[in-house]
Amino acid sequence: MAYTVSRASRNNHIILQRLQSFSIKQAYPFQFIVLLVAILILEIIVGLVGYIKKNEVEVMLEKNLNSTMHSYYNNPEIRKSWDITQHEAECCGVKGPKDWTVITKNDSLPHTCCPDTPDDGTCTTHLNHYKVSCLEKMKTLFNRYGAIIGGVGVGIGAAQLIGVLFATCLARSIRKEYETV
């Protein structure tokens, strides 16, 4: 009799262990699904806010470009940023080269406004200089690459959605296995 009680107790213990392992196996896919859906929802919210606030970003960009332009000759870091921007984007000033004439009070421009800077390093409005505004160049870049970034975001979202579907299938499979035990 003691042997049967001991054996029944051991069998109950084994059954409880299997039930616990199945409930843990069920919990992991569900937690993964919840986490993935939460991240997907956050990505959608950020994308929508970015799209809705697009015009505010352009206004902020123009404001910051104007404010840093006035510190060009006083701050070496700002000067370096402007020089890199104007050289790489082949542009001059926020709205054009005339912006610099307001700051310099004459017709001189930063050397990066001229594609072919003379030997003395001067650049003026009388020389061959970039006529495109940096603000317009940046807007063009944002519009061009914004679509690419949006497409990548949609692709990542689709991959996450597929992950949710696979995790749901896995959870259902584990639940069916649990029900047959």
SSE diagram, text form:
Elements: H1 2-52, H2 54-69, H3 76-89, H4 98-104, E1 108-109, E2 123-124, H5 134-180
Antiparallel strand pairs: 1-2
Helix pairs in contact: 1-5
Protein name: Tetraspanin
Subcellular location: Membrane
Keywords: Disulfide bond, Membrane, Transmembrane, Transmembrane helix
The proportion of residues in beta strands is: under 5%
Distance between the termini: 27 Å
Strand order of the largest sheet: 1-2
Give the rounded overall mean pLDDT.
81
Low-confidence stretches: none
The percent of residues in helical segments reads over 70%
Order of helices and strands: HHHHEEH
DSSP E strands, number: 2
Sheet of most strands: 2 strands, antiparallel
With helices defined by DSSP (H or I, 4 residues minimum), what is the helix count? 5
Class computed from helices, strands and strand pairing? mainly alpha
Shape: rod-shaped
Rg from alpha-carbon coordinates: 32 Å
Transmembrane segments: 28-52, 145-171
Organism: Acanthoscelides obtectus
Membrane topology: Multi-pass membrane protein
Keywords: Disulfide bond, Membrane, Transmembrane, Transmembrane helix
Short description:
With 181 residues, this protein is mainly alpha-helical.
Would you kindly provide a written description of the structure presented here, covering whatever features stand out?
With 181 residues, this protein is mostly helical. It is built from five helices and two strands; from the N terminus they run H-H-H-H-E-E-H. A two-stranded antiparallel ribbon has the order 1-2. Helix 1 packs antiparallel against helix 5. The longest helix has 51 residues. The mean pLDDT is 81. This is Tetraspanin. Keywords: Disulfide bond, Membrane, Transmembrane, Transmembrane helix. It is a multi-pass membrane protein. Belongs to the tetraspanin (TM4SF) family. It is found in: Membrane.
